[in-house]
Amino acid sequence: MKRPFLATALVLVGAWVAYTQTPRPPRPAGIQNIRENLYLVTGEGGNVAAYVTSEGVVLVDDMFERNADEILGVVRSITDKPVRYVLNTHQHSDHAGGNARIPPVVEIIAHKNARANMAALKQPGLPRVTFSQETEVFLGGREVLAAFYGRGHTGGDAVVYFPDLKVIHTGDLFLSGPVIPRGQGGANIYIDYAQGGSAVEWTDALARILTLDFDTVIPGHGPLATRADVVKFRADFAAMRDRVSDLVRQGKRKDDVSRMLIDDYGWPDGGLAIQQVDRFIAEVRQ
Predict the structure, then answer these.
(1) What is the pLDDT of residues 62-96, one digit of tens each?
(2) Range with the lowest mean pLDDT among 87-101, 124-138, 213-227, 250-264?
(3) 54-66 mean pLDDT
(4) pLDDT, mean of residues 186-195
């Protein structure tokens, strides 16, 4: 008997790469006020946060390169202050592709591993400033903190924290709601092993994030969420990974593990998703 599909749709799918990197008809950018001077900009790529201060704007991510001008236009609709900083949550082009179109006077900041990944992929718009564990931006009397809590979606994921507002932007370490409709639910996570991601360390990173004092979450994709949503996401992820570990300890074959992930967690049958099972099994076996 199949287990009910998890509300957070925990799936490790190569289709995530195709979904986020393949050009699609543009979806107009929208803007939503979250709290005080913090806004959520939605559109074709990953969620963008815009924090307006008296001295300028801090952006978190900038979608695809083709979205950058529209995002800057949306920001101009709410303030005449210039964008001063862009903080990248990771290197994927649906989150950092807009770097290539950001004016050179804007400082782009990312974790050092994210920049290395961008350089390896020959992405334009490399950050000039990087950090290892955390960095802070102070602008207009406001503080924005970017920190690395461990490997997960990639090897250079940054979480951005707005302490005055008790809001975090998680990048793709956390996503809310089904992103790619698929049968019972949606494909909601992808572990980029090629760029340093880890299924084992992902939940440890989420545990460290949960030590922060926040109540509102801007996910990498999907609607605004809460602390409780992150707690559940982490628990569901761990439960899925433990089931894989149990099958590995029982000596089950790769095909058995793949079938469980397809039947119980919505993995697509075949293709890049199943090719990742080898890396997943190798990681949980260690």
Answers:
(1) 999 999 999 999 999 999 999 999 999 999 999 99
(2) 250-264
(3) 97
(4) 71
Q: Return the structure tokens found at 22.
A: 């393949």
pLDDT over 60 at 12, yes or no: no
| DSSP code per residue over 219-258 | ESSSS-EEHHHHHHHHHHHHHHHHHHHHHHHTT--HHHHH
Residue count (the chain): 286
How would you classify residue 5: left for phi > 0, otherwise alpha for psi between -120 and 50, otherwise beta?
A: beta
pLDDT value, residue 187:
40
Non-local (6+) Cβ contacts of 66 within 8 A are 23, 26, 44, 97
**Contact between residue 246 and residue 256 where contact means Cβ atoms under 8 Å apart:** no
Would you list the domain boundaries of the chain?
A: 24-181+195-226
3-state SS string over 79-129? CCCCEEEEECCCCCHHHHHHHHHCCCCCEEEEEHHHHHHHHHCCCCCCCCE
Q: How far apart, in whole angstroms, are the C-alpha atoms of residue 9 and residue 253?
A: 24
Rounded Cα gap, residues 263 and 159, in angstroms: 32
**CATH assignment of 24-181+195-226?**
3.60.15.10
DSSP 268: -
CA gap 271, 286 in Å, rounded: 25
Count of C-beta atoms within a 10 Å radius of residue 60: 29
Q: Output Rg (C-alpha) for the chain, integer angstroms.
A: 18
Average confidence (pLDDT) over 13-38: 67
